[in-house]
Amino acid sequence: TIAGKMLAELKQPFLIAGRDFYTTVSIGIAVFPEDGENPELLLRNADIAMYQTKAHGKNGFREFTPDMNTHHVERISLENDLRYALKEGGQFELHLQPQISRRRRRIVGIEALIRWHHPTQGLLGPDAFIPLAEECGLISGISNWVIAEACRKMRHLRALGYDDLKIGINLSPRDFERADLLERITEQLTLNNLPARCLELEITESLLMNDAEGVLAKVRQLRRAGLLISIDDFGTGYSSLNYLRRFSVSSLKIDQSFVRDLGGGSAGGLIHAILGIARSFELGTIAEGIETPAQAEALSTLGCDLMQGYLFSRPLTMAALIDYLASPPPIA
Ligand code: C2E
Ligand code: MG
Ligand code: MG
């Protein structure tokens, strides 16, 4: 009851210098004595409950339960492992997934997807640690590594004669809060003797909605430097068409959820609409998550030529990618 009243009270705008400011509040509750018999423990458990509130969309309250503790301890230890991995090196790896032009029957690019060889938990995919890295401020360290490693890989591929490929890397919205993003990228491009156009930065729609003006300036700066920018998982978030124009992005990645449904229902209609938007803004398009020949065929018919998905190849280690490039399997 008290937490509810506090939330209602704090929901009111604060009037500061003639403007209304709104704030959200996250409350964690721990009760004496069952949730802690001393002040330290009570505060710690209330804190854990508060983080649960934040993790579940903020602006609310939660009461501490013992299983939150296990979750919290696991999280902290994963965070420590991540810190260590960044400091020591040697635990992260980029897997590379080919992107193909179905019409031209050739590979046009690759996407870099991070993997973590965790010392005890084995191979972890990005979903297991990227959100955590974003929350605890380690994401910029990871992105720095990804930028540098992707550039190193490109240098290697170009030395082997694959000089018309580009590589896509995934950035976090957090990377756009940094002042040194462009500098970091150009430094690595120079170091590896790469033209800017061989690097494509994948950003999400949500980024375009946050702090639009600040992000807009950064995106423009990156584009002016010659880098390509694509919007990942396009169609799953909320993009204002106006932002698409203003952000001068280069292409849209059609989310795999639309591709998965191809063949039945309205998904074909959605892809058709996205392709129409892309055409009128003069943006490129690539579809993700193609798993069946029927999906590839349907996309071709709709006019989407660039594709990426298990049908063509799973994300590969560098060695496997080099084999794949040397003798590409027939394109379905
Ligand atoms: P994404 O950028 O949309 O990447 C596509 C995801 O779909 C990848 O999962 C890829 O392995 C998977 N995928 C590719 N083809 C198919 C298919 O035909 N069927 C199905 N079911 N899945 C397919 P992954 O590698 O687990 O990555 C998940 C997400 O993690 C990525 O989504 C991206 O948002 C993020 N991520 C990956 N690497 C990085 C990174 O280096 N930095 C950051 N910040 N995020 C990353
Ligand atoms: Mg991506
Ligand atoms: Mg995607």
What does this structure look like?
The longest helix has 23 residues, at 66-88. Strands 5-6-8-9-10-11-12-13 form an eight-stranded mixed barrel, surrounded by five helices. It has a two-stranded antiparallel sheet with strand order 1-2. It has a two-stranded parallel ribbon with strand order 3-4. β10 (228-234), α9 and β11 form a beta-alpha-beta unit. It has helices at residues 2-10, 39-55, 66-88, 130-135, 139-159, 181-191, 205-209, 212-224, 241-246, 256-260, 267-280, 293-302, 318-326, and strands at 14-16, 19-21, 26-29, 60-63, 92-101, 106-118, 122-124, 166-170, 199-204, 228-234, 251-254, 284-288, 306-308. The radius of gyration is 23 Å and the shape is globular. The protein has 332 residues and is of the alpha/beta class. α5 runs parallel beside α6 (181-191). The structure holds ligand C2E and magnesium ion (2 copies).
List its salient traits.
binds magnesium ion; 21% strand; two-stranded antiparallel ribbon; 8-stranded mixed barrel; alpha/beta; binds ligand C2E; 332 residues
Write a brief caption for the model.
The protein has 332 residues and is of the alpha/beta class. It is built from 13 helices and 13 strands.
- Give the N-terminus to C-terminus distance in angstroms: 61 Å
Radius of gyration: 23 Å
Low-confidence segments: none
Give the H and E element order.
HEEEHEHEEEHHEHEHHEHEHHEHEH
Structural class: alpha/beta
Q: What's the quaternary structure here?
A: single chain
Task: Please bin the fraction of helical residues.
Answer: 40-55%
* Integer average pLDDT: 92
Strand order of the largest sheet: 5-6-8-9-10-11-12-13
How many strand elements?
A: 13
